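For the sake of transparency, this paper describes our internal protein records without simplification. Because each token names a local backbone shape, the row as a whole describes the fold. One such record is reproduced below, unchanged from the form in which we store it:
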Amino acid sequence: MRAAVAWVTAAQATQLTWSEVSYWLGRLDHAKFVIDEADLQVDEIFAYNHRLGALCIEGAPVALAAIPATGRAATALTQEQLLAATAELVIGPGAGAQDLARAIYDDMADVVARASRIIWPTSQHLRSRWTPFPLEAPTGG
């Protein structure tokens, strides 16, 4: 699997994390990474993990085909196929990607309510070694 790495300052990391509120920030524990075209050792890798988990269709997680990967276990779908499958779950049989986009435009709250009942309970969460960050909740004051 390939991933992009962003080298950021503390201020940039804070801003990036605020822009990704639907994701948890965490450290990947014991992960092995090869850095292309660089003679570099990385001691810690932090990543964003979606709070709701991976979308599952027919009981199994799916992957986005546009993201290259080797040894992928999940079925890879194009973005349109992924949206169409989601539309069928949220709207009903025969619904497609455009139907989902229209439904979101017309009444996003309704689509979110349906997704929360139908899709979110079947999502699959990361099962690797993952340490949420920060390790302690900030204290108020």
Q: What stands out?
A: The first strand starts at residue 23 and ends at 28. The chain has one domain: 10-132. The two ends are 43 Å apart (CA to CA).
